Amino acid sequence: MMDNQAYHLDKRRVRNSFDRAAASYDGVAVLQREIGARLLERLDYIRLQPASVIDVGAGTGHLSKTLAQRYKEARVIALDLAPNMLRTARRHAGLLARWRGRQGFVCGDAERLPFANHSADLLFSNVTLQWCNNLDAVFNEFRRVLKPGGLLLFSTFGPDTLKELRTAWAHADSAQHVSAFIDMHDVGDALQRAAFADPVMDAERLTLTYSDVRQLMRELKSLGARNAAAGRTRGLTGKGRLRAMADAYEHERRDGVLPATFEVVYGLAWAPSSAVNLREDGVVRVAVDSLRRRASPR
What is the pLDDT of residues 132-158, one digit of tens each? Predict the structure, then answer.
């Protein structure tokens, strides 16, 4: 999964970009907060009282704090690749007195989680998986860390995300300026390969509007969402190519504004309720007597 060079990201560049964006992130993360709120709403329909929650890709800790407020007895751990994001999250946590003593802040990579086997009841991840290189490795790590019967809930971006910007850049040059995003069905297949139970996938498209393309690019930079693709241009992009891209984007203008599409993919799945072994060939092995029908949520 994700062996295609188009999907490969420079993780050091990803970390550095989000480190630099820690101070500006909350001021522009309107879409991320909206997606996170929609993701949290899905927990309203699930009977779950976790003792341990890990927010993977916690960023500045906004959703970690909300999870701590929702699950008042749970220990909530915020994990992020960028140290400066975690420093901001720690400051936010200090404003929530009830979270003190129940919080944890861990700098780490979703592809190599620094947690013990079967140590979490809930793994929550909002628009983070698109910054990972190997989705199979991520989901295998998620399954390893979740307790039997634990819940995985996540969102990420699908391939139509920033399609207008991608098309506009294609008129300027042949380099990769926008990250490639994985199709919802491929994400669901990766969940099944990792032996998750009862996966549920769905997607929606949200559109933000901008006065010009430079406003969109400034916002992406403030979010830390810089181009980290292996196929990106290493040098500075010339003014001529920037102008060609901006001119091409103008063809998308409607009612005086430029649209930017974001395809949002949501996923929910359960860790198997008994031990599951994955062989190197990807075949799942599970004891016959452990198979039973899972009761559907409330």
Answer: 999 999 999 999 999 999 999 999 999
Residue 224, pLDDT score: 84
Residue 135's closest CA among 193, 177, 58? 193
Most distant CA pair in the chain, distance: 66
- What's at 286, amino acid-wise? V
Task: Round to whole Å and give the CA distance between 66 and 167.
Answer: 37
Residue found under tokens 């800790």: 61
How big is the CA angle at 5 (ends 156 and 191), to the nearest 5 degrees? 40
- Phi and psi, residue 124, nearest 5°: -120, 130
How far, CA to CA in Å, does 283 sit from each of 111, 142, 192, 194, 276? 20, 18, 11, 9, 10
CA 274 to chain centre: 27
CA distance 102 to 107: 17
Residue 139: per-residue pLDDT: 98
Cα–Cα distances in Å, from 201 out to 32, 135, 264?
A: 19, 15, 11
Distance between CA atoms of residues 18 and 79, nearest Å:
13
Tell me the C-alpha distance between 218 and 182, whole Å.
24
pTM of the model: 0.86
Q: Which residue has the tokens 């198997």?
A: 272
